[in-house]
Amino acid sequence: MAKSKLDYADVDNKQRIIETATKLFIKQGAHETSLADIAKELNISKGTLYYYYPTKSDLIFDVTDIYMKRLSGKLLKWVKNHDNKNSPEDIISVVFKIMFKTTNRGKLHIYLIYEAISYNKLLKQRIRSAYTEWQKMLEEALTEILPKEKEPAIVAEIILTLITGGVVHSALGIKMSPLPEVLPHIIRK
User: Fold this and answer.
1) By Cβ atoms counted within 10 A, which residue in 73, 97, 103, 135 is the most buried?
2) 117 and 27 share a domain?
């Protein structure tokens, strides 16, 4: 019994850390926020925080991963429950708009990718795994909305790549081509 209570406490503590870190990352930026800042905001010792998250990259990964899984899940659910009145272009357009709308989370995502490609091999593996999962979710959604598409995995890969690039463009303030002009190049009829 004591073990399961401890497990619940660990989950609750981890959730509190993630929520607080998210708030501070968005407010101050991930680069400017230290684990000490997060511990102070939570009113816990740095040692307690390090018990759950030995590195800031681990924490940023969990913040980003949770967000992406929630967003992917919501989008997948929305795609599965859409009425047939929406065209595939409209559905994919909504996916892009939702992804680009969240600039603060996008900045976290960019920071995380930077950490991974710079020097953190374990983080790189975790991101690679997450991208594989996100691509499968997109592929599943595309199979629903584009039943005639012969290569939904390739289209999913293109969309995921465009989303990642779009997040970078959005964070930099680079104007992108309007989606109605881009989508015909992605969706084959």
Assistant:
1) 135
2) no
